[in-house]
Design brief:
Blueprint (H helix, E strand, L loop, with lengths): L1 H119 L4
């Protein structure tokens, strides 16, 4: 009987050990899963941070490109405005020069007519 009792005690101890090993393994698996979740969470946060930085950089590049386009457009407008102003000024100068020439010609014709009247007036 002692052999049967000893055998039963041995079987009970082995069963208890197996149960403890199963519970310990289960607890270890839970910790492993918890660590894996933490690593995955950190990886997601890192990926979000990288994506956020990429979006910010893309926005900054887009903003700089728009600013450069605006500056280029403003420069083109300024060049066109300067060209129009220059052409307008040149046209005014040419018109003033022509007016001055016409005035001088009129004055010369008046002087000639006065001189002719002075010279020919006593004859008539």
């Amino acid at each position: 009987m002692t052999a049967i009792g000893g055998g039963l005690l041995l079987v009970a101890m082995l069963a208890a050990g197996s149960a403890l090993a199963y519970v310990h393994e289960s607890d270890s698996d839970w910790q492993d899963r918890s660590e894996a979740r933490e690593i995955a969470r950190q990886a997601r946060e890192h990926a979000r941070e990288i994506a956020r930085e990429a979006r910010d950089q893309a926005r900054e590049q887009s903003r700089q490109a728009r600013e450069m386009e605006h500056e280029a457009r403003d420069a083109q407008r300024e060049i066109a405005r300067a060209g129009r102003d220059s052409a307008r000024e040149y046209a005014h100068q040419v018109r003033d020069a022509i007016r001055e020439q016409v005035r001088a010609q009129r004055e010369a014709i008046r002087e000639m007519k006065r001189a002719m009247r002075r010279d020919w007036d006593p004859v008539y």
